Amino acid sequence: MAVTLSWDLFVAVFFTVIIAYSFIIGKNNTLKIIIGTYIAVLAADGLGNLIQQYVFGQSPVLQVLPAAFEDRALILLKIIVFIIAIVLIAVRGGFFVDIAEEETAIGRLIAIFCFGFLSAGLIVSTILMYVSGFSFVEGTSDIALSPVFDLYKQSQMVQIMINNYNVWFSLPAIAFVAMSLIGGGARGK
Known about the structure:
Strand content: under 5%
Helix content: over 70%
Number of helices: 6
Structural class: mainly alpha
Largest sheet: none
């Protein structure tokens, strides 16, 4: 059996790994990762935009560098800051999430799967948006002008993730609020 490597396969494997990890860490820690992802999105985008404005935009030494280098450096910086921020918040974050558990084991498994799926969608779509060169703070631009337009044309899953980024960005927050309302909210300690 021959397996053809593609970006669709990469996205599917990434989703599977994040969902499996969600089962390992549980619903509360998956929700902590989702909250950390929102913070990381803003931190990475803001820091990248500041560096673009004040380092690449104003340094006469760096202005001689090709624009393609600047774009790649900013994309890489945003992705690195994004991943480091998620890991630091998940591991060392000064908060915890404690949502009331479902009454049945099947209910718990479904909740973990749903939040794992939403976490995967949020993380994958954010990374794809950064690779596309888009900024959340400044707004998006035309995908046809993106450095990954060929990838976008080749992969239906990449198209779904980028075209529906606003859905992937909103659903985890909506699900978190709905779970808090339906499940009776967070337990106090």
